[in-house]
Amino acid sequence: MFERLFGKNKHPNPQGPAPIINPYTPSDPTTLSQQNAIISYFMNPNTDASGTPNVTPDQRQLFLARLKNNEISLDQEAAFLRRIRSPLQDPAIGPAGVFAKISAQPRETQILAVATGYNATNWQNVTETSLQQFIDPPRRHQPDYRTPIGFKAFRKEFLAGIKPQASENQIESYRIAMDSLERIIYGKRLEYYQQFEALRKLATDPQTSPEKSSTQNTAVDADQPKSSSVTTTKPTSLTISTITSERREQLLSRVVIDGDPWYQAGEEYRLSSVNLLNAGLDPAYETTLDGKIICLSKIFQLSSGRPAVIAYIPAEQGVKVRSYYQDRSEGLWHYMPDYVHDQSSNSLEWFGKSYSESATTLPVGLQSVLCQIAMTHPAERITMTNPDFLFSGTAKSYLSMQSYRDALNTGQLRGDFYKEVSHTPLNPDARIGNPRKGAPQLISVNADKAPDFTKPLTAFKTYSELIGEMSLYGFPSHDGQYNWLFGRDYRGRSWVAYIEAVSPLTDTGCRKEWLSATDIQTPLYEFSQQSDGYGDPTDTRKGYTSMWNNYLSKIPIIEQFIAALEPRNQS
Length: 571
What we know:
Elements: H1 30-43, H2 57-68, H3 74-81, H4 94-103, H5 106-115, H6 128-135, H7 148-162, H8 168-186, H9 188-204, E1 216-217, H10 219-222, E2 241-242, H11 245-253, E3 255-256, E4 262-264, E5 267-269, H12 273-278, E6 285-289, E7 292-296, E8 300-301, E9 307-315, E10 318-326, E11 333-335, E12 338-340, E13 350-351, H13 357-360, H14 364-376, H15 387-392, E14 396-398, H16 401-409, H17 417-420, E15 458-464, E16 468-476, E17 482-488, E18 494-501, E19 525-527, E20 536-541, E21 544-546, H18 556-565
Parallel strand pairs: 3-10, 12-14
Antiparallel strand pairs: 1-2, 2-6, 4-5, 6-7, 7-9, 8-9, 9-10, 10-11, 12-13, 15-16, 16-17, 17-18, 19-21, 20-21
């Protein structure tokens, strides 16, 4: 239906071409590549499992038929998975590197200890040797933990065993630790296992086919352990479904793109649905938040490497197309209403922050959805078209920072965001621009506004260039007016990542109301010049300094979060 359009366009056209980097088709998605490797192996066992073979539709159907007829056993699946190199077999990591990651987290160490025969009194004695024994070929009548197949049974038994003594928060934290431990031990082997299980589900339940249903649960829901999916507690009880071709055509036919033209090499380009479709950034996933449908493309990389996604939001005036990106230092997702672009450059110069970064931060529920997708479907690289054009074409453009500041100061910033989102925060008296931080021990929260740690909303993983992989935990306030999002790194250091004001959801995907960040939202790593003397000089990264030892660890609400998360009987 749509053909690829290349070349320059001196006369802007709503359905015109896109600026081309090089005319090569992007590589297949990781998911397809891994599934093809699985299928090819069982069609031809001599295939190298690490390759990316081509698989015909007939071969795929034949493989699914074999799965449906139980012609491929779990033992055969395990044999295939053992061909995938695990981190323990990687010379650059090895058992020592894997154990170092596990031993840095008490819960993961406890889980490994239980699996290798230790108990509550001596779990700290677990060693690298125990890890090696864990993944060695099993002795007679012993469980086989060499692949995630055996780990799945252990997971079920372990969680059932702690249920009578643990609180809901503690069980959830152990589920998160299970997820992390599994990824550390199995690496790519886990990814292939998840794709194998997705193929089994597709074979045994045809209704999960995207051609059959518009509400198919993606691998994000079907293959991830329970801990990485959103709970049923409102308002972040979101499901993720894939979109059928019919639904996709329906959405694309109503697309409204209200961005400025992109300038490159002296030419002007205006973004269209054809450009997005040709680049593979058409609607792929669908979720609903507060009754509003939000559709998302696959996640892709901008020229800077920053993860981004195109959102499609049905509204009265059509399907509004929006651009979201992940902040690389904090790991949270934001909406980009505008940007600064030097026409002599082919890339983005600066992302518009509107009134505040807090105003453009996406709701906790949408954060969870995007992070779940990102953890199972890493950002793809687009090679045939400038990804910055595809991302920026939905937003308003400014030629310089000065022109942007002038528009901000005079209230003349353009676009839907500035019509739908409040100009001022709910806490207008918040400390802004004051370099002095309040004493951490004195930072308090009104009881009704404080997080209710007995009602977890969600728990998921994300990634920060400063921190690495980290866990995020969401809780509602006691009065239901706010959603608190806490961060926690692999060392157990914690912080308040975001406080969401529960208010009407706009057609941008952002909330109408927002809060200015205050001292209670001090990040784990703060700009050194903003640390006010509380930074740790022994822990600095890229101009940032750690705020844990001297500040965050002394804030009462963070102490309460850690106490709610930690097992009561932990040594």
